[in-house]
Write a structure and sequence with these properties.
It is built from one helix and 17 strands. By secondary structure, it is mostly beta strands. A hairpin with a 5-residue loop joins strand 16 and strand 17. The longest helix is centred in the middle third of the chain and has 17 residues.
């Protein structure tokens, strides 16, 4: 069974749809009305001239708008209501439609702060202990190309975790203050580097004392 057609509303005058060719060339043009043909190894392929986006009248969604290029006075027109919609270019409207589609795609995307941006390199499996505590480590590269060792520590009875960042080249040992207070799960963490020790020790109030 074919899928029910979907028309997306851009504004009071213009709506749009995705055609069969929005994901690239195919051997059939489907419901695309703005396609061009190419030959590859004696096979005909069809590609949409408008990036797979077709503009429709919002008042008459079944009607595809006609584009009338006329220099600085170009317009879109509905054959039913004869409404003329002045536009700078058809491409500009299509880009707006694509941006609106992206809003739907990325609405639940994970937001990463640029100042904490890094690239994953190595992931180690979670290590669970008989006490119920677990440890997981990642090795990553930050935007400067330096190494970040990330250590996650948690307990099976809690969904929270403490998170540490070890940056050997920068001689840094830090924790993520948005996560669990490390003092609730450990009393001390010590990192041995080639030329120094990095230590964080916690008292009963959860306050850390950084040592070099």
């Amino acid at each position: 069974m074919s899928k029910e057609p979907i028309i997306y509303r851009l504004n009071d005058d213009i709506s749009f749809r995705k055609c069969s060719l929005i994901d690239g060339k195919l051997e059939k043009y489907g419901d695309c009305t703005e396609f061009y043909e190419t030959q590859e190894n004696f096979v005909t392929f069809y590609t949409c001239k408008d990036n797979g986006i077709h503009l429709h009248c919002t008042k008459h969604p079944a009607i595809e708008l006609d584009y009338v290029p006329d220099g600085y006075d170009s317009y879109l027109q509905c054959r039913c209501c004869k409404n003329e919609i002045r536009v700078k270019s058809k491409d500009e409207i299509i880009r707006k439609c694509l941006k609106q589609l992206n809003m739907e795609i990325f609405k639940n995307a994970k937001l990463i702060r640029l100042d904490d941006w890094y690239t994953a390199e190595v992931k180690e499996p979670t290590i669970k202990t008989e006490s119920g505590y677990w440890v997981k480590t990642d090795v990553k590269t930050d935007r400067d190309g330096d190494t970040i060792v990330v250590i996650y520590i948690g307990h099976k009875d809690s969904s929270q975790k403490a998170q540490y960042f070890i940056k050997p080249e920068k001689h840094q040992l830090t924790c993520d203050h948005k996560d669990m207070d490390p003092a609730k799960i450990i009393s001390k963490i010590e990192v041995t580097l080639r030329d120094r020790f990095l230590t964080q020790q916690y008292d009963y109030n959860g306050e850390s004392n950084d040592q070099l």
